[in-house]
Amino acid sequence: MKRQLGLKYRLDPTPQQAARLRVLAGHARFVWNHALAECLAARERGERVPRYATMAGWVTTWKRQEATAFLTEAYTDNLQQKLRDLDTAWQRHFTPGLAADAPRFKKKGKSRDAIRFVNFPKYCRLDHRRVKLPAGLGWVRFRQSRPVEGRITSCTVGLDGGHWHISFQVEVELATPPRHPATAAVGLDMGVAHFAVDSHGTPHAGRNSFRQLEQRIATTQRRLTHKTRFSRNWKKQKARIARLHQKAANVRRDTFHKLSTTMCNNHAMVAIEDLRVRNMTTSAKGSLAAPGKRVKQKAGLNKAILDQGWFEFRRQLTYKQAWRGGLLVAVPPHHTSQTCPECGHVEAANRLSRASFCCQACGHADHADVVGARNILAKAHEQLSGQDLPVAPVK
């Protein structure tokens, strides 16, 4: 059995190598935007969006044209991989149930710069803390925080917060499928006041990393408005803003890794709600004809929800449970905080407030988040057993 892993490290390129990486990333970004424009033009003509096999031929044509002859200096594999990514993005957009947006144009400085090198054993080489990359890069040093074990199939170099990183895709051969050592199960109710509350009644606090740095980010952004656009000082200030955003993301990701590792190590099954964050964070602004209500309060709630990063936490739970042979179950979130876990009675009046729950039928009282976590776990057991247990209608 083969298992794929992604190992990410900080890259330390020389100034010449960093400049070459930016050029390669620019080539890939140009090809993405140029190909996306062709795809959008085809849709306007009523034609189907071209697939990768068609888009790959465009690169050869563009290299022969005078206006785009600079693509001859690009690394062809990078361009092909970017077109594969575009094709995948279109297929995700057309797949029912994914609700994925259509691909958008990439802008320098706002979109993440990344290039991928495939067929690693043939074109690249690893030597302890150095990696040899093609396209005129040569040997590049990286910070090996953990050993690279397994067979490397490809690597991706990307720019995050002003620093280059390299991610190795590794294949590891397993003699037998993993089997989780634990037998316990847990349900998690995600929230804002508490990042998560488990079905055992234990709250897990979030870091609210963006909220902690919000004032510093606002200050640096105000200073940016007083600088000449695209000047050297303007670029320095932009880099400061990017570093603050990257710091908030790193703090958030570190919290997720610690909590998800604890949950996956101790529980063979983790149950969560299938939350649609995009629907939960829609604006309440409304329109001129029908203006919304409590717009500022809803905007603050949206900011707090987005600061939690529920999707990233779910992504980490998914692959960590798969590594250990465990199971992650996502259940519908309907009425999880209005259902009594003791008698099954469902009523909106059961939820007295954000934190209080008291069943109007049997009188069971508990913290509302704990009740939600218990109901999530019960729904997961029902979903796995294939049973649809009767539930009283909501009054």
Radius of gyration: 25 Å
Mean pLDDT: 93
Strand order in the largest sheet = 2-6-7-1-5-4-3
Termini gap: 51 Å
The string of secondary-structure elements, in order, is EHHHEHEEEEEEEEHHEHHHEEEH
Would you give an account of this structure?
The protein has helices spanning 15-44, 52-64, 76-94, 120-123, 209-224, 232-266, 277-280, 295-308, 310-324, 368-385; strands at residues 2-12, 114-117, 125-127, 130-133, 138-143, 151-160, 163-173, 185-190, 196-198, 203-204, 269-273, 327-331, 356-358, 365-367. Helix 2 packs antiparallel against helix 3 and helix 6 (232-266) packs across helix 9. Helix content is 43%, strand content 19%. Strand 6 (151-160) and strand 7 form a beta hairpin. With 395 residues, the chain is an alpha+beta fold. The N and C termini lie far apart (51 Å). The chain has 2 domains: 2-173, no CATH class; 185-333, no CATH class. The strands form 3 sheets. Strands 2-6-7-1-5-4-3 form a 7-stranded antiparallel sheet. A 5-stranded mixed sheet has the order 10-9-8-11-12, with helices on both faces. The chain has a two-stranded antiparallel sheet with strand order 13-14. It is built from 10 helices and 14 strands.
Keywords:
five-stranded mixed beta sheet, single chain, Transposase, globular, transposition, seven-stranded antiparallel beta sheet, Transposase_put_HTH, 395 residues, alpha+beta, disordered C terminus, 2 domains, 10 helices, zinc, 14 strands, Cas12f1-like_TNB
